[in-house]
Amino acid sequence: MKEEPTFTIKQAAKQTGISEDTIRYYERIALLPRAKRRDNGHRVYRQEDIDTIQLISCLKKTAMPLEEMRPFLAVSADADPADYPDLVELLRSHRETIVSQIASLQQVVDFIDVKLEEGRYRRDCTDENQDGVSENMMIEPKSKPVSAVQMNYFSSAR
């Protein structure tokens, strides 16, 4: 029987992009199960632990609070979602929030693009019509020369 591969905390951190300190913190608050220890006291992680850390990282990127992640982490990866309708509904709701945030951020990106193309940088980005698209964005932007003073707004040497 082939033995399951194990990883040190350094290897787990490298694979997941999560710092060693953060992994220890997740263990301390019981978001991750306590890692098994070698005789020398060093932590040992299994692939299942790596997968859980990656799931936490993914949920964290969606701005889900750590406490709200607990129910999702308690369900095994191969579980049937139909067995957890409450969790499915929570995830759907969270997804809708993220989609809304993406749309809002896209409006900001569109606004910035228009301002960069027009050479104007100080207009309000909240004047939306009913479709949620800025009226300024519906007009084809005209290229205008940008003064040295205006370019200083974007100077990286501040």
The gross shape turns out to be extended
Instruction: State mean pLDDT (0 to 100 scale).
Output: 80
Series of secondary-structure elements, N-terminal to C-terminal? EHHEEHHHHH
Tell me what portion of residues adopts beta-strand conformation: 5-15%
Which class do the helix and strand fractions yield? Answer: mainly alpha
Instruction: Write down how many β-strands occur, each being a DSSP E stretch of 2 or more residues.
Output: 3
Largest sheet: 3 strands, antiparallel
Low-confidence stretches: 136-144, 146-158
Helix content: 40-55%
Question: Mind explaining what this structure looks like?
Answer:
- The protein is mainly alpha-helical.
- It has 7 helices and 3 strands, in the order βααββααααα.
- The longest helix has 34 residues.
- The C terminus is likely disordered.
Layout of secondary structure:
Layout: E1 6-7, H1 9-16, H2 20-28, E2 36-37, E3 43-46, H3 47-61, H4 66-74, H5 85-118, H6 135-138, H7 148-151
Antiparallel strand pairs: 1-3, 2-3
Features:
158 residues, mainly alpha, 3 strands, disordered C terminus
Produce a short descriptive summary.
Helices cover 53% and strands 5% of the residues.
